[in-house]
Each structure stands twice: as structure tokens, then as C-alpha cells.
Design goal:
- This protein has 4 domains: 34-327, Glycosidases (TIM Barrel); 434-449 and 593-629 and 635-722, Jelly Rolls (Sandwich); 459-589, Galactose-binding domain-like (Jelly Rolls, Sandwich); 731-841, Jelly Rolls.
- 18% of the residues lie in helices and 31% in strands.
- Helix 7 runs parallel beside helix 8 (332-345).
- It is globular and about 95 Å long.
């Protein structure tokens, strides 16, 4: 850019600064906003946020998760509020243990972070029934999420309940608390047209109702282009750099930036490269964003029957910066941390000026923020997804990799590029616990679940009942039972069953005869199976199973489940026999559920079988065993790959549904994924041909020192003797830094005092708390090849690299190594060299 162009640009920027004086500011207690940003206690802020859903972890995990979020550069923790678990029975509230919302908010407050409370109360969130309690379904005349008086009455009552709880605890920012934003409804724009005019009026009512609760903080509606003032409409998606709020008075807020995607039973495992995630964040702030939220920052676990979908897996890891077990995922966490530092160095310029856009070439652009005081920040972007380019800006030349953003807090010096990772990565290992394994292998009890009608509370009906209406979601299971009479010499009939799913098991004369399932929320089950019927009366028992209720879509609450029919016997002498409209007997749930077999001390039942060799590959059977607590403090996982489908409990705590028998498709996976170019949930996937989930999180706080009880309900057959407990820990640290790539700068003061000339590149390693670097598995300065776990020496390699690294790092929790020929030698003069290290922590 020439000096004349620069002067012209400064004139444009100053004009934009003058315009800022005429922008309306919307007051909201101690939190207000204008077109550019949120203002908290008089301070204009750029905010980095991350989603952590309190029920998807345990209260004992919360402080560590929140502290790691703070250490990663977050300002705000965002969470939904889960109505179904807070009010499981109409008028009866529950706010204990994992659902202690006040405790969670106060834990965030104690860490010095803000809270965005997404009350909804519709959540979606891959949560059962979208977070609505099932009893709503049975209120006479109700229609959910529309201008319907019975629904609005209940929604307002619960929303008011939550707001009043927060007020009583002085938790809104207007009271000196941490809550700076609240959300009403959620992504309603995506379904609004299904509801017609009542949907449009519902949006206005919801906004007015929320504002009328007088929280003293702004309210938002995400993905709601017609959100009425003063509600802020926000963006959700993989990219939001093109988002424009529906009013010139509102800031650009991004409430969900998907860091990966959720996992489904029978599906591949999605992941998102951090280079692309960082690119999306930098682009959003480059183009005028004020708050960005990672969905999820810690995904956690769908304990119990909380997963919705259907078919959403028990793991809600989401490829998040903090993994399901609470372990920092590298290099995602550290690379984003450095990105956050770079953005914060630009904060003063970002919040006090508007971006000025400059074209630098095809798919090349800059955005510059300039203050009258001389403070200046700039972002340079290459949105080409294949080619690197050199660009000229402010009289300097900069190299921009494809699909990347460079950040210049002083409009001159690049301190961060989204595509260049200079932080450590890790390999997380799962270590077999021999003591626990041996205990499980020799101490088993088992109980055969009753097939079909087991209690005196069964019911009969002519025709097929819908499952949700019948069970009221009190159980995943509903038995459909009928007696079928067959004459002598009938040919082998074919049983035909159609069901809304989500899974179906067939028993003929109390013996397992087959199973079927859907594969996603849009698929139904059509099962055809040759069955053997005896002359005379036969019993046909069909077990219909839900795997989480629908959680999204127009009128999703009206989508049923269970066996809809027709149910027929084909190939009989007299043709096809339709059983659908005959008299059926129904049993809600399983006998073992009624007996409480999953409890640590199931005092209602003493008829367990016992011995060292439990039955294997048997359907509808309960298993029980005891185990000792694993040594140490590392997170614990249960490996259930030897089992089929069912549910697991530890000491009476449900760790969720399991389904290792449901394998993902054989193809479509990629061992590496090019971060360049637009991402969606199908672009980067792994785990083809494997169980969608092998390991199941068992929180440490649920495990006692001794006498722990594991209970399994197995539906289709597995081998419990091969079940293992494992601990999860960081096995290796890896880092890779080029001598030409500057280390991130810690503060603006460093730039002002020393410039970038003193900012020499360093390679840093940092073991988890309680561990030290015990050995160096690989070290090379030159042209090392490969990735963490499979580094190899290149043609250029300094022979003393490993001994130098060992001297600096072994026996320390962390170490830093200057990446320079002065310290490491020069094996290939004139070449840009890289230092790559893999270290072991113990």
C-alpha cells in the first residue's frame, strides 16, 4: 500500500470514528451494548466464550474444567438450562448434584469468568426431547413452541422460576453477579415457518415475556432474524464472518461455533482441524464480531437417558478443546489460546473503531481498525483454499498461507497466523488396569430378564399403541405381546414388522429370534424374519426400544415412536395374516428396572445367579460385578467393546446407553483432513467400520475406594468377561517449531518495549499437573517429517539435538528450548530449519 493510499485510508477511518458518536447505546443495568460491542461495568469488551453444560460432567469436575477454560483464554462460560431434569414432574423441582445450576454459576463466578445463561427453555442440544419435560406432551390442548396459551403459561412459569433463582442468589451482572447475557428460545427461525402466523407472534411474545422479567442484562435469540428490539439476534454455524445483526444498534454475537460435531451410534466420528477453527474465529473478529462462543469447549457425557436425537451416542466429546474426560486436547487448546492472546492484544482498537475493508487481491483482503490516538490493529486474510500468496500492506510484504488469517496488533507485525501451529500436541493413552480386570473376571452375578409380560400392571388394547404416549418416556422399553395360533403343517412364516424405532427385538415363544434398528433420525425399521411357530398357540413378544427422543424440527414433539405396523405373518396357507388390529398386551419397562437391579444394593431382589463363568452372548440379561478403585487420579473409562447393546451403571449412577454392536460404515473416513476450504460435519471423519463408541466415561467421584458395583443390562448378547476398566492420561507431549516462526507475544507492552526483534522462537513442553518429563522419545533439528507419535528424521538433522533437549527438559514439569542454530547447531546452512520433539510424561 502506498503512502498516499495510507493517508486516504486514515481519513476514512477518522470519519468512521466520528460516526461512532451518533450510534445509539442500549442500556441494560451494568451490561449494555451498541452496534460494536458489549459494555460491562463501563468497559467495552471483546469476549471469548465456551460452552460447558453442567449436567454433562459432575460438580467435582467443574472447577478444573472452568479453570482450564480460563487458562485457555476464555472470558465467558455459556450453558443451556435443562428444563426436563429440573422439573421432572410438573411442579416438582430438582436442582441437586449434576443439576445444581446455582452451584455451577457460582463456580464460574469464583474463577472470575462471566456466564451466558441460555434459559430457552427449549435447548435442542442433542438432549432428550430438546430439553422439554415429557409431561408437557400430555397437557390438554397444548402445542409446543407456538402461540399456544397452555404452552406459554408453562414456559413463562419455568423461565420465571430460573430468573427468580438467579436473582435470589444475586447472580445477574446488574446485581454484581457473573451473568451478563440470557437467551430466550433457541434457533426458532429454522422452524418458524412451519407454525405460520402463530409462530411469528410467538417470537414477539417470547421476547416481551423475557424482557419483562427485568434481569438487568441483555437477552439474545440465536438464529432469529426477526428478533424484536431490544433482543439481540445472534449467529450459529461453522462460520459467521458474514453475519449482520438485524439492527444497526446491535453487536455481532456468535453463540455457537461448532468445534467439531456430535457423535451418533452407528456413525463415523467427526473432527474439525484447529487451523480451520482458528480461521473461522479470526475471520469473525476481523469483520466486526464482538463475542464468539465455542460449541462445545467441553462437551462431556450424556449420562443416563439424557441423549436425544435419536441415536446420539453417550459420548458428547464434540472434538472439543477439553475432551470428554477433562483432558486438554492438543494442539487445539493451545493453538486457540495463542489466538485468544493475539485477539486480546487488538481489543482496544477493535472495540473503539469500525473495521475498514481493503482488497489486497483476488480472495485476499485486510480489515483495519484505527483510533485517533494512533492505536491500530489489522487482520490479513487469504480465503483461497488452495494457494499461498504474498501480499503488500502498509508498505510491508506478508506471506499468507491458503485459508488463513494473520493478526497484526500494531498494523505492522504479524504475531499469529491461524494456519501455523507452534504449540504442543499430545497423545492420550488408555491404560489397562490389571487389578480391576482380574476382579471383574472372577466375580460375576447375572439375572435373566423376563420376556414379555412380567407384572400385574400390564394393559391391553385392540391395535398398536404409540410408544411415547404409552410409556410417557419412563423407560426406553415397551413390550408388545400377542398370542398367535397356528394349524398343523403350516409353512415357515415370515414375520413382517414396521416400526418408528428406534430399535426392535423379536422373541418367539420366549426365545430371541431377531433384531432390527434404524440408523438415523429419519429412518424407520422394517424387519422381515423367518420364524418357527409350533402347531397351536404361540407367544410373540416384540420389544420396542427408544434411543433418545426427537429434539429438533417443526412439530418434533408430535413425532412418535414404537411399532406402528403393519405386523403380518406372510406365507401361511391362507395367505398373509395381519396381526396389527388384533388384541395386544403391553408392558411398560423391564422387570429389572422395576426391581432396581441397577442400584448398588438392590434390596428388592436376591435371586441373582453367581459364579466365575457368566452366560455369554445371551439376550436380555443383567450382569453385576464388583471392582476396586483404580490407583491414581486419572480419569476412568469402561471398555464395553465386547458387549452388544444396553445400559450400564456404576454404584447406581447411570453412565448411559452403550451400543458397540452398531458399527459405522466401512468407507468415507480420512486419515488426514485438509483444513483448507469450508468445513461441515461430513468433511473430516474417522473410525470407519468400528463401533461408534468403545469407551464410556466413569467419573472419579462416582467411584469409591473399594466395593464398587458395576451393573449392565445387555439386550442382544455380549461377553462380559472381556470388559475392562482403563485410565486415561497424556502419554506424550509433542511440539514442532520453525526457527523462522516467532513465538506468540504475551502482552502489548512487550511489543511497545522490545518490538519483535527480541521475540525469538522457542519450543515449549508442559506436562499435566503431577507429572514430569521422564524421557525424550524423539528430537530433531533440521527437516523432521511426520506427526506426533510418528516423527522421523529428515535429510537434515543436528546430531546433538536429543542430548541437548534431554539436558534441558528431563525431570522438569515444563521446559522451553530456543529454536536457533546458536543453541542447536546448523546441520544445513541456508535452510529454514524446524525443531520437533516428542517427550514422555510420568
Amino acid at each position: 500500500m502506498s503512502m498516499a493510499s495510507m493517508k486516504k485510508l486514515l481519513g476514512v477511518v477518522l470519519f468512521a470514528l466520528l460516526c461512532n458518536f451518533f450510534i445509539k447505546q442500549c442500556e441494560g443495568g451494568n451490561v449494555s451494548y451498541d452496534h460494536r460491542t458489549l459494555v460491562i461495568n463501563g468497559q467495552r469488551r471483546i469476549l471469548i466464550s465456551g460452552s460447558i453444560h453442567y449436567p454433562r460432567s459432575t460438580p467435582e469436575m467443574w472447577p478444573d474444567l472452568i479453570q482450564k477454560s480460563k487458562d485457555g483464554g476464555l472470558d465467558v462460560i455459556e450453558t443451556y438450562v435443562f428444563w426436563d431434569n429440573h422439573e421432572p414432574v410438573q411442579g416438582q423441582y430438582y436442582f441437586e448434584e449434576r443439576f445444581d445450576l446455582v452451584r455451577f454459576v457460582k463456580t464460574v463466578q469464583q474463577a472470575g469468568l462471566f456466564v451466558h445463561l441460555r434459559i430457552g427453555p427449549y435447548a435442542c442440544a442433542e438432549w432428550n426431547y430438546g430439553g422439554f419435560p415429557i409431561w408437557l406432551h400430555f397437557i390438554p390442548g397444548i402445542e409446543l413452541r407456538t402461540d399456544n396459551n397452555p404452552f406459554k403459561k408453562e414456559m413463562q412459569r419455568f423461565t420465571t422460576k430460573i430468573v427468580d433463582m438467579m436473582k435470589e442468589e444475586q447472580l445477574f451482572a446488574s446485581q454484581g453477579g457473573p451473568i451478563i447475557l440470557c437467551q430466550i428460545e433457541n434457533e426458532y427461525e429454522l422452524v418458524e415457518d412451519y407454525y405460520g402466523e402463530p409462530g411469528h407472534s410467538y417470537v414477539k411474545w417470547a421476547a416481551s415475556m423475557a424482557v419483562g422479567l427485568n434481569t438487568g442484562v441483555p437477552w439474545v435469540m440465536c438464529r432469529q432474524g426477526d428478533a424484536p428490539d431490544p433482543i439481540i439476534n445472534t449467529c450459529n454455524g461453522f462460520y459467521c464472518d458474514g453475519f449482520v445483526p438485524n439492527s444497526i444498534y446491535k453487536p455481532a454475537l456468535w453463540t455457537e461455533n461448532y468445534v467439531g460435531w456430535f457423535q451418533s451410534f452407528g456413525g463415523r466420528v467427526p473432527y474439525r482441524p484447529v487451523e480451520d477453527l482458528a480461521f473461522s474465529v479470526a475471520r469473525f473478529f476481523e469483520t466486526g464480531g464482538a463475542l464468539q462462543n465455542y460449541y462445545m469447549y467441553h462437551g462431556g457425557t450424556n449420562f443416563g437417558r439424557t441423549a436425544g436425537g435419536p441415536f446420539v451416542a453417550t459420548s458428547y466429546d464434540y472434538d472439543a478443546p477439553i475432551d470428554e474426560y477433562g483432558i486438554v486436547r492438543e494442539p487445539k487448546w493451545s493453538h486457540l489460546k495463542e489466538l485468544h492472546k493475539a485477539i486480546k492484544l487488538c481489543e482496544t482498537a477493535l472495540v473503539n473503531s469500525d473495521p475498514v475493508h481493503l482488497d489486497l487481491g483476488p480472495q485476499l483482503e485486510a480489515h483495519m481498525y484505527y483510533m485517533e490516538s494512533g492505536t491500530c490493529a489489522a487482520f490479513l486474510a487469504n480465503i483461497n483454499d488452495t494457494s499461498d500468496f504474498n501480499v503488500t500492506f502498509n508498505g510491508n510484504t506478508y506471506s499468507l498461507p491458503a485459508w488463513s488469517v494473520s493478526i497484526l496488533p500494531d498494523c505492522n507485525n504479524v504475531i499469529f497466523n491461524t494456519a501455523k501451529i507452534a504449540t504442543q500436541s499430545t497423545l492420550v493413552q488408555s491404560k489397562l488396569i490389571n487389578k480391576v480386570y482380574e476382579t471383574i473376571g472372577t466375580n460375576w452375578k447375572w439375572y435373566n430378564e423376563a420376556i414379555g409380560i412380567w407384572g400385574n400392571n400390564s394393559l391391553t388394547n385392540t391395535g398398536l399403541l404409540e410408544q411415547i404416549f404409552t410409556t410417557e418416556d419412563s423407560s426406553d422399553y415397551l413390550w408388545y405381546t400377542i398370542s398367535v395360533e397356528i394349524t398343523d403343517n403350516e409353512p415357515l412364516p415370515i414375520l413382517h414388522v414396521e416400526s418408528l424405532g428406534h430399535a426392535l427385538h423379536v422373541f418367539v415363544n420366549k426365545k430371541f429370534a431377531g433384531t432390527g434398528s434404524g440408523y438415523d433420525e429419519y429412518s424407520n425399521i422394517t424387519l422381515e424374519k423367518s420364524i418357527i411357530l409350533n402347531p397351536g398357540k404361540n407367544t410373540l413378544d416384540l420389544l420396542s426400544i427408544t434411543v433418545g427422543l426427537e429434539n429438533f424440527g417443526g412439530f418434533y414433539d408430535a413425532i412418535g415412536a414404537g411399532i406402528t405396523g403393519p405386523i403380518t405373518l406372510k406365507g401361511l396357507k391362507n395367505g398373509t395374516q395381519d396381526l396389527s388390529m388384533q388384541e395386544w398386551t403391553y408392558q411398560i419397562g423391564l422387570e429389572g428396572e422395576q426391581l432396581g437391579l441397577y442400584l448398588r444394593n438392590d434390596i428388592k431382589n436376591t435371586n441373582w445367579n453367581s459364579g466365575p463363568n457368566p452366560p455369554k452372548n445371551q439376550s436380555m440379561i443383567w450382569y453385576k460385578t464388583e471392582f476396586e478403585a483404580p490407583d491414581g487420579n486419572n480419569p476412568v473409562a469402561l471398555d464395553l467393546v465386547s458387549m452388544g447393546k444396553g445400559h450400564a451403571w456404576v454404584n447406581g449412577h447411570s453412565i448411559g446407553r452403550y451400543w458397540p454392536a452398531f458399527l459405522s460404515p466401512e468407507n468415507g473416513c480420512n486419515t488426514t483432513c485438509d483444513y483448507r476450504g469450508s468445513y461441515d460435519q461430513y468433511k473430516c471423519v474417522k473410525n470407519c467400520g468400528q463401533p461408534s463408541q468403545k469407551l464410556y466415561h466413569v467419573p472419579r467421584s462416582w467411584i469409591q475406594p473399594t466395593g464398587n458395583v458395576l451393573v449392565l443390562l445387555e439386550e442382544i448378547g455380549g461377553d462380559p468377561t472381556k470388559i475392562t476398566f482403563l485410565t486415561r492420561s497424556v502419554e506424550s507431549l509433542c511440539a514442532r517449531v520453525s526457527e523462522s516462526f516467532p513465538s506468540p507475544i504475551d502482552s502489548w507492552e512487550m511489543i511497545m518495549k522490545d518490538g519483535l526483534s527480541s521475540n525469538k522462537p522457542e519450543l515449549s513442553l508442559h506436562c499435566p499437573e503431577g507429572q514430569l518429563i521422564s524421557s525424550i522419545k524423539f528430537a530433531s533439528f533440521g527437516t523432521p517429517q511426520g506427526q506426533c507419535g510418528n516423527f522421523e528424521h529428515g535429510e537434515c538433522n543436528a546430531i546433538d539435538t536429543r542430548s541437548i533437549i534431554e539436558e534441558i527438559c528431563i525431570g522438569r514439569r515444563s521446559c522451553s528450548v530456543p529454536v536457533s542454530v546458536k543453541r542447536l547447531g546448523d546441520p544445513c546452512p541456508g535452510m529454514d530449519k524446524t525443531l520437533a520433539v516428542q517427550a514422555i510424561c510420568n
